[in-house]
Amino acid sequence: MKGRRTWLISIAVITVLGIVLTGCAAVQKSDATDAPAAAAGDALPSWNDGPAKQAILNFVQTTTDPSSPNFVPAAERIATFDQDGTLWVEHPLYSFAMYALERVPDLVKAKPELAKVAPFSTVLEVLKGDHAALAKLTLPDLEKVLAATYTNRSVDAFTVQATQWIAHAKDQRWKRLYTELVYQPMQEVLTYLRANGYQTHIVTGGGQDFVRVYSERVYGIPPEQVVGTAGVLKYEYNKDGNPFLFKEPKLLLNNNDAGKAKGIHLMIGRRPYAAFGNSTGDQQMLEYTKAGDGARLSMILLHDDAEREYAYGPAQGLADTKVGAFTQALYDEAKKQGWVVISMKNDWARVFAFEK
Amino acid sequence: MKGRRTWLISIAVITVLGIVLTGCAAVQKSDATDAPAAAAGDALPSWNDGPAKQAILNFVQTTTDPSSPNFVPAAERIATFDQDGTLWVEHPLYSFAMYALERVPDLVKAKPELAKVAPFSTVLEVLKGDHAALAKLTLPDLEKVLAATYTNRSVDAFTVQATQWIAHAKDQRWKRLYTELVYQPMQEVLTYLRANGYQTHIVTGGGQDFVRVYSERVYGIPPEQVVGTAGVLKYEYNKDGNPFLFKEPKLLLNNNDAGKAKGIHLMIGRRPYAAFGNSTGDQQMLEYTKAGDGARLSMILLHDDAEREYAYGPAQGLADTKVGAFTQALYDEAKKQGWVVISMKNDWARVFAFEK
């Protein structure tokens, strides 16, 4: 019961479904044509020159130069990345939550009586285009939808379902696969860090099993380097006597907020030298990273680009949101702690790979 | 409360302290002089020719040959190893539990009143040589000693303490550091697998934070590839405002039995292609591994060498034990499931690197 409640809290942001799906941030068809500022040998061609790009270059230089006082042995080079809103688009709603909603028709197909039972009936209305219906969904409703789509099945069955969905599911604004909505500048950072001996781990509030389905293909990050929200497992046997793992509707690790620092210790066991995030859920990961000795890099992405992507804070007078909020308090903390704020608008020459 | 109880169960084997410390297996000074059966280019020189060695060679050959139907892509090459009794000596008592007992004098130094309070007073008697005193220790007593030495401190403080201990603590039979009591044949397997693109992970019932202290130095296995029994963490701030992780006296993952399969999924996220164990606590890891498709290797070590190490089962008529028991039922299961049993006596030409 407590586990379910915690799970619930971890996705509390979804309460704002009604707001965000009807559009709180400027949502316009992208027509950006910024050319990447590529220079010969530039490892970060989609970044504009400026303090953010320079901070990354300086960090890699100082931690990989054996003559530097900040040199970090290869084995200790760990970098961690939030996913939603840091590596790919999180608006209007986290993809892991969209998955839960869009799985409901299949649930109803298997159990037709669900079509008349809330909250499944409500989700069906939403999926038919009635966004106002979303406002009817309460937190316990959403909890039920997540539990019904992520748990009470084997790990293998979940993997098959999520794999099918992610292969076809598209974002409504760009009409592209969610996996195409990864940020090109961050892909370059991943590649650049790995080329310099850094392990790149995802540390996400999203479901660990969900992200593992595509992380290797999309980011080059293998399952064993994905730390995410994870549920309790049960070890069972099928009728042929073969063992399998069953996903119970109970939370083991809520990988948000302080949970990110805990998840990093549990699954990686070393303090990162670099961490990248974009919202309040990343605060502890960023401060835990920065509190280490030597040169540590904590960077936080501000979505201030309504034209090419979205603009939300509420920091710096941007629109408020509950999906990936970057509060003014967090902004002030970033400045105080020496984290580097990335302005999507100013620091990124290109947002997506599919841009010309 | 439930967490503490589970922790307790996970170390229930320690009840037999009294028996094992007074010597249930033949304990004689090692005088083995078996020369390694090294051949030019032999990756496993400390293994005698036989079905066990051949199984390892065949497995690596068939899973790394691109023309083989059993070929495994490099990214999926995962091998998991139990530690106590599989990679190093576990008798008369697991080193992680010896650590708990031997930390008690320091606890008493900090709080002198503990010297007169059970179970700490009892442990002090034991450490002075009164092994009979061990029989007085109940399970709740032992639970208290483990909690008092592993938890209620920061991760950083624990790491410092465990690092100091492991640098100096010695086994009483060989008068050598515990870290010297690693099995040379298994070191060769680790090296051989890694040379063939396999990741080698430790999957131990011992404390994850404890094993991480020395795993890289001793086995070449970095902290992020150690899956172990782990407690709940708390994220706190010191008086300077710097964050740190605090180890609470509550269990998160009991990494024994079915917990090993769960831990593997949680922290690695792929089913291993090879797994190595030696006791009932490894059964689910071995069967979970073997149940995968393609060529999977599950191997289990039988300690049947009283002269060079220890002899215990109770499988095959060997002495009974509660520290790393290999039951006859497990032996029968191994034969039925096609796991390969390693006979320490017959399959290993050499047990320790320090042997001539």
Approximate strand percentage of chain A: 15-25%
- DSSP, total strands of chain A: 9
Q: Oligomeric state of the chains?
A: homodimer
**Compute the gyration radius of chain A: what is it?**
20 Å
Q: What level of helicity do the residues of chain A show?
A: 25-40%
- Spans of chain A of 5+ residues with little confidence (pLDDT < 50)? 1-40
Question: Terminal Cα separation of chain A, in Å?
Answer: 50 Å
Shape of chain A: globular
Secondary-structure content class of chain A: alpha/beta
Query: Secondary-structure element sequence of chain A?
Result: HHHEHHHHEHHEHHEEHEHEEHEH
Main pleated-sheet profile of chain A: 9 strands, mixed
| Major protein interface | A-B, 33 and 33 residues
Number of helices of chain A: 15
Q: Can you give the mean pLDDT of chain A?
A: 89
What does this structure look like?
- The structure is a homodimer of 356-residue chains.
- In chain A, helix 1 crosses helix 7 and helix 12 (258-267) crosses helix 13.
- In chain A, strand 7 and strand 8 (311-312) form a beta hairpin.
- Chain A is α/β, with parallel strands linked by helices and 356 residues long.
- The first copy, chain A, contains 15 helices and 9 strands.
- In chain A, strands 1, 2, 3, 4, 5, 6, 7, 8 and 9 form a 9-stranded mixed sheet that branches.
- The N and C termini of chain A lie far apart (50 Å).
- Chain A binds chain B through residues 75, 78, 155, 199, 208-209, 212, 216, 222-224, 226, 230, 233, 235, 242-243, 245, 252-253, 258, 261-262, 265-270, 284, 287-288, 291, and chain B through 75, 78, 155, 199, 208-209, 212, 216, 222-224, 226, 230, 233, 235, 242-243, 245, 252-253, 258, 261-262, 265-270, 284, 287-288, 291.
